[in-house]
């Protein structure tokens, strides 16, 4: 596992350097990379996929979904800039891998999953690995989780046709949201939304990506496949 984990870290670092002109940096926050190093990705994939768990690419996890590419998980976490006292909302639990990494970096993670079966699997993994600062619910990601708002950061792991108003409202002044935006299986962009202390927002485009759609009010996909044509040399697709 150690060699596989280190190889994955090396691959992430190499891809960060390759995309530095797009993401504006040639290295990610060391705290983020340490969290990636600590979380065993092989624990979040089905047994038959564990041989490939440390490859820098997405893998199927059942129910028509996948675990995201490690590079994108690390990049989105870095863009979110979580701090130890932060409360984070994640839209799209999926395998739980992104959730677990966030749990290493902040005080509380609230995560919403539309596919109940995936949520149950992830909850079991969290319990088994001892992640105790994660709270999960099944529901419509477009609505967020208003009961625990406001959040210092919000991360969305599926492409929304628009930035949901409910999520902007649930973001604390001074907070950040990382979200892919675009039409299904078309041009999509990873966006960084910043809310200032007066409640005004500004949005930055980071790079092109390929995510399945965030489905509103029903079961549906949520997962990043890979960077888009303007993002990565690794054209892994969905």
UniProtKB/TrEMBL annotation:
The active site is at residue 68. One of its GO terms (biological process) is protein repair. Its main location: cytoplasm. Residues 227-238 have a biased composition (Polar residues). Residues 218-238 are annotated as: Disordered. InterPro entries: PCMT, SAM-dependent_MTases_sf. GO terms for cellular component: cytoplasm. PANTHER family: PROTEIN-L-ISOASPARTATE O-METHYLTRANSFERASE, PROTEIN-L-ISOASPARTATE(D-ASPARTATE) O-METHYLTRANSFERASE. It catalyses: [protein]-L-isoaspartate + S-adenosyl-L-methionine = [protein]-L-isoaspartate alpha-methyl ester + S-adenosyl-L-homocysteine. Belongs to the methyltransferase superfamily. L-isoaspartyl/D-aspartyl protein methyltransferase family. The keyword S-adenosyl-L-methionine applies. This is Protein-L-isoaspartate O-methyltransferase. Catalyzes the methyl esterification of L-isoaspartyl residues in peptides and proteins that result from spontaneous decomposition of normal L-aspartyl and L-asparaginyl residues. It plays a role in the repair and/or degradation of damaged proteins.
């Amino acid at each position: 596992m150690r060699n596989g984990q280190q190889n994955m870290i090396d691959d992430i670092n190499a891809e960060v350097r390759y995309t530095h002109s797009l993401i504006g940096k040639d290295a990610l926050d060391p705290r983020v990379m340490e969290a990636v190093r600590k979380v065993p990705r092989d624990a979040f994939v089905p047994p038959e996929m564990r041989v490939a768990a440390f490859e820098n690419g997405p893998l199927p996890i059942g129910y028509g979904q996948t675990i995201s590419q490690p590079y994108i998980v690390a990049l989105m976490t870095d863009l979110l800039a979580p701090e130890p006292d932060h409360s984070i909302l994640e839209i799209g639990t999926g395998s739980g891998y992104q959730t677990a990494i966030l749990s290493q970096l902040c005080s509380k993670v609230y995560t919403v999953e539309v596919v109940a079966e995936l949520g149950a699997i992830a909850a079991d993994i969290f319990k088994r690995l001892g992640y105790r600062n994660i709270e999960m619910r099944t529901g419509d990601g477009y609505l967020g989780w208003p009961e625990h708002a406001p959040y210092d950061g919000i991360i969305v792991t599926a492409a929304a046709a628009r930035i949901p108003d409910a999520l902007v409202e649930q973001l604390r002044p001074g907070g950040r949201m990382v979200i892919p935006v675009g039409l299904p299986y078309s041009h999509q962009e990873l966006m960084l939304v910043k809310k200032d202390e007066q409640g005004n927002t500004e949005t930055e485009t980071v790079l092109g990506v390929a995510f399945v759609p965030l489905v509103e009010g029903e079961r549906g996909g949520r997962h990043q496949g890979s960077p888009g044509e303007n993002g990565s040399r690794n054209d892994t697709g969905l």
